[in-house]
Amino acid sequence: MAKDFTPRPEDRFSFGLWTVGNRGRDPFGDAVRRTIEVPEMLKGLADIGVYGVSFHDDDLMTFGASESVRRGEVELFKKTLDETGLVCTMATTNLFFHPIFKDGAFTSNDRDVRRYAIQKVMRNIDVAAELGAPTYVFWGGREGVESAAAKDTRDALARYAEAIDFLAGYVKDKGYSMRFALEPKPNEPRGDIFLPTVGHALAFIEKLEHREMVGVNPEVAHETMSGLSFYQGVAQAIWQDKLFHIDLNDQRPGRFDQDFRFGSEGLKDHFFLVRLLENSGYSGVKHFDAHAYRTEDVDGVWDFARGCIRNYLAFAEKAREFDADPRVAAAMSYTGVADLAEPTIGSFSKEAAAGLLAESFDVEALAQRGYGIEALDQLAVDHILGIA
Ligand code: GLT
Ligand code: MN
Ligand code: MN
């Protein structure tokens, strides 16, 4: 019989309204499933043990509607959060759907579009604060180019930084306790998107005035699209104390942004990713930014959502078993995994430099060493396959 994996609130799983709400539209075809209204969506998520939800302004409040209509939509959302016990874990702005953003939002060549984009974010930051969202995500899907002739990238990055810093100033001025998380993506929908990888985003953040309140929101699919290791990007973000949020899904390298069910493709990658998140003390939400295959009806949407959670919890269990296996401990010791935690020489001093210059190394003997990584990795594969 299939094993039961029941999520607990402390697992902190969350979904975006646009994920289970995805109706299967793609560039070649129209919606294939009915709309799931927000109250039905939240009840469905609570039923499967989800902790929180995230939203774009336009998912929750009808774009262009009167303030009273928008207020009514927020109130209904708040009421349903109360009824279901779900919390609002993240908010973000739709700066990509409306035609006004076709040349970008913060980096549009049109200054009025740039000013409108910042205003749209400020308005939704107020809603996010009212709902208690601790994280505000920026995914700049339209911030980019098809032709390098169209923008000076240095100006675009300056405008991007200006917008993020202005908005950080707004949050601080209002006294909101909210942090920002930038979400990188290499391309799609633009030919080239600014801040294409986790590394670009981390470097960009260091140039910001309010850099302490800005981190990253890496997404599995976005790094994997361009063949990068998601694991390495996330690990570096953790090392730099910048993993403020994470978008979990799945993806095959070299394809369009597939946003597949978490854990459905890269089994080994996901095993190590979950092990990293669990062992690193990451305490943020585990946010699924994915959607059901276009073949699915609404029942399939809930199969998809349950699958994301099930796969995460299964990998977490496998990771614990792997770490508790004495053969793994021995193999890791042979490989020298813990030895890398030992400082090599420490900070520079004239004495340390002189000492190192005086040292002699048996280069041939050191070169002969085998690291035993085939055996170690096979243990990981054995655990993943359930044959350890
Ligand atoms: C959009 C995108 C996602 C982002 C969302 C936040 S919107 O669906 O594909 O990766 O996280 O704006
Ligand atoms: Mn995402
Ligand atoms: Mn995606």
Description:
The longest helix is centred in the C-terminal third of the chain and has 27 residues, at 298-324. Helices cover 46% and strands 10% of the residues. It folds into two domains: 9-317, Alpha-Beta Barrel (TIM Barrel), CATH 3.20.20; 324-385, no CATH class. It has 388 residues and is α/β, with parallel strands linked by helices. Helix 5 (111-130) runs parallel beside helix 6 (153-174) and helix 9 packs parallel to helix 10. The strands form two sheets. The protein has an eight-stranded parallel β-sheet. It has helices spanning 17-20, 38-47, 57-60, 67-84, 111-130, 153-174, 198-205, 220-225, 230-239, 267-279, 298-324, 326-335, 350-358, 363-368, 373-385; strands spanning 13-16, 52-56, 87-92, 135-139, 144-145, 179-183, 192-193, 214-216, 247-248, 286-288.
Write the layout of secondary structure elements.
Elements: E1 13-16, H1 17-20, H2 38-47, E2 52-56, H3 57-60, H4 67-84, E3 87-92, H5 111-130, E4 135-139, E5 144-145, H6 153-174, E6 179-183, E7 192-193, H7 198-205, E8 214-216, H8 220-225, H9 230-239, E9 247-248, H10 267-279, E10 286-288, H11 298-324, H12 326-335, H13 350-358, H14 363-368, H15 373-385
Parallel strand pairs: 1-2, 1-10, 2-3, 3-4, 4-6, 6-8, 9-10
Antiparallel strand pairs: 5-7
Helix pairs in contact: 2-4, 5-6, 9-10, 10-11, 11-15, 12-15
Bound molecules: 5-thio-alpha-D-glucopyranose (GLT) and manganese (II) ion (2 copies).
One manganese (II) ion binds at residues 219, 221-222, 257, 259, 289.
